[in-house]
Structures are given as C-alpha cells and as structure tokens.
Amino acid sequence: MSANTTFTAAVVQMRTSLLPEPSLEQGMTLIREAAAQGADYVLTPEVSNMMQLNRKALFEQLKTEDDDPSLKAYRALAAELKIHLHIGSLALRFSPEKAVNRSFLIGPDGALRASYDKIHMFDIELPDGESYRESANYQPGETAVMSDLPWGRIGLSICYDVRFPALYRALAEGGASFLTVPSAFTRKTGEAHWHTLLRARAIENGCFVFAAAQGGLHENKRETFGHSLIVDPWGTVLAEGGIDPGVFLAEIDPAKVGTARKAIPSLQHGRRFTLADPKAGPDYLHLVRGSA
Q1: Distance of alpha carbon 288 from alpha carbon 145, whole angstroms
Q2: pTM across the whole model
Q3: Which of 38, 128, 151, 261 has most Cβ atoms within 10 angstroms of its Cβ?
Q4: Is 118 part of the annotated catalytic residue set?
Q5: What structural domains does the chain harbor?
C-alpha cells in the first residue's frame, strides 16, 4: 500500500429503476464508461440495485447476499476491468421481515474486500409532508468498517450516516484517508445540506470524500438530488455531477491528506469532555485530559 501514488477515482451517478435487471444494466454501462476513462477506483450510489419504497414489491425482489445476481455480476465486472469497484449499496434480504442496505468493496480480482451495513436509519418527516421510515424495512448495521486500498485506507458509510460526524472521526482516527458516502439524498435535503455536509466531513477529518449519488425523478416518483461529488481534504470540490446519470472523475493525490492534516492537525487536538452536572452550577463543559 502506497500513500504516495496518485490514482483516478470515479463516482457513478445513477437513476435506479424499480427492478434490479434494468438497474444492473445501467450500472454496468456506467462502470465500463468510468474504466474506459481511466478510473482505478469506481463508486456507485446507495441502492444501486433498485429504488423501491413499496414494502411488498421490495421483498418480492430481494435476494440474499449469496444469491444476488447484481453482486455476482459486479464481482465479475471488477475482475474483467481490473478495477477496485465499490458498489455503494445493494438492498438485500436479511430475514423474512427485514432487508439490509449493504455496501461492497470488490477488488480487481473480483473478491469481496469489505462490506458495510448502513448504521443510521433514515426515519424522517419533512415539512412538506415527504416522509421516510427506513427502519420499517431495513435492519441497521452496528459496526464501522475500513479496508486498505493500494493508495491508503478507505472508510465506508452510506447516505444518512453523513449527518453523524462521530462515525467519520472514528474512521479518520483509525487511519482512513478516504471516506465514502454513496447516497440517495432527497432533492429537498440535498439542496439544503448536501454540499455543506460532505465538505465538512472532508475538512474536519483531512480526508478525501467520494460521494456517488442517485439523481432525478425515479419511477416511484421519488426525486433525488444527484450532484455526485469528489472532495479533497481541504474541502475543494474536484468533481461534481448534475441531475442526470453519468460518470465524474478526479485525479487523487493521497499526499494531500498529510498536507492538510499537518496544516490543521485537528485529529491530534481532540479532547474528551463531559457536560457539567447541572446541580453543581452553570451548564458548561468540563474538558478531560486525553485525546478524543
């Protein structure tokens, strides 16, 4: 593993179908396009196999990890193209009552290098009446996951996780130079928060952030924000998509991680703290010696 070797990263923006077959065809086409443009590492969005909100229809299509045809096809494609292929997530069967939202990092030999189950469930009600209850269908994960690439360590996350900065700080402190946020942000929340959240995660951790997104109006009438991003450790946007499906690439210099962290060594300056006991007086923070 060399942190001094540059590589080309690509984020693939999709508009996933209700069904796995057309979604797979779309994903394969875009991944091939990314590889043809020189990508060494390719990331697809959250739920790359199907964008399905109806519970009955979802469970009719779900497969287990061992039986999922999309995962098998993507593993074969990674081996064919000799790339590191990161499938942002697939909806898979976990039990008769629950699915999992699972991310897969596949090596150039087609082997699975890492998998991660989305920890934070998107259970929200927006002011305009739009609502989601991800926990009704999905089993949340419990474990943060990292894996080593030839160019440095990568930390895995999915979509709504991005609103929980402690996860990314733990990944950065664990040695991650790259953070991944494959997503299916709603248009409304994306317009308000997408760029700010992703740039903040990059800046505060001195990491590159790769965020492949779903974009546009889907068959189920859900509208996703798009704007897939690659952000460097200083918060500079290196590549950005629009609304439509496509491939967006950037040359990645891992040395920029060390440069950013040397300039602003916030990972070294963190301190543990606890809230003061309200009964003891004013509500202020007591710092405790030691790194966070």
Answers
A1: 28
A2: 0.92
A3: 151
A4: yes
A5: 7-265 (3.60.110.10)
